[in-house]
UniProtKB/TrEMBL annotation:
Pfam families: Nitroreductase
Organism: Kaistella antarctica
Keyword annotations: Flavoprotein, FMN, NAD, NADP, Oxidoreductase
EC number(s) on file: 1.-.-.-
Name of the protein: Nitroreductase
Length: 169
């Protein structure tokens, strides 16, 4: 198959796949490494490579789920707090093989939008690579990410802009 056809098929097959559709099969470390490596080939002005990706698996992943649920419990308005949503947070994390936190490192050399755009392109590369490996994934931006600075040990010029869920389908 011609390269253009292969690329076209991967782009057209790319979908957001949610944790409820993931199997319990583990993603091989070599596949996860390839997915992460593809992020490094995103275009970025002045080669700032502003994306900061942190992988959570196993017990670390469970701790992230507990942290997100605790943030929801503390920050949700008591009138709108939903017990089901609280439980769903940890369940969604548990159903995922891996979670990658997506953060941007603002260099100060470029407009912030350019570094956010470069980070988004790095995530698109991960989406396409995951699709090629038949790994389900999706990028989520819950409000709780705004409270992860300390947990992720982000620097002052960094901001978490999402969670990237992955699982075999």
């Amino acid at each position: 198959m011609e390269k253009v056809e292969i690329l076209k098929n991967i782009i057209e097959a790319r979908r957001s796949t949610f944790p409820k559709s993931y199997s319990t099969e583990e993603i091989q470390q070599s596949v996860l490494t390839e997915i992460l490596n593809s992020a490094n080939f995103a275009p970025n002005h002045k080669r700032t490579k502003p994306w900061r990706l942190k992988v959570f698996r196993g017990e670390e992943k469970n701790q992230l789920g507990v942290k997100l649920a605790a943030i929801y419990q503390v920050t949700a308005d008591p009138q709108t707090f939903l017990e089901k949503k609280y439980i769903d947070i940890t369940d969604k994390i548990a159903m995922s093989d891996s979670i990658i936190t997506i953060s941007v490192n603002f260099s100060g050399l470029l407009p912030e939008w350019e570094e956010i755009a470069a980070t988004a392109m790095s995530v698109q590369n991960m989406y396409l690579t995951a699709t090629a490996y038949e790994v389900g994934c999706y990028w989520s931006t819950p409000g709780m990410i705004n409270h992860l600075r300390e947990f992720l040990q982000l620097e002052e010029n960094q901001k978490c802009i999402g969670l990237f869920y992955l699982g075999k389908v």
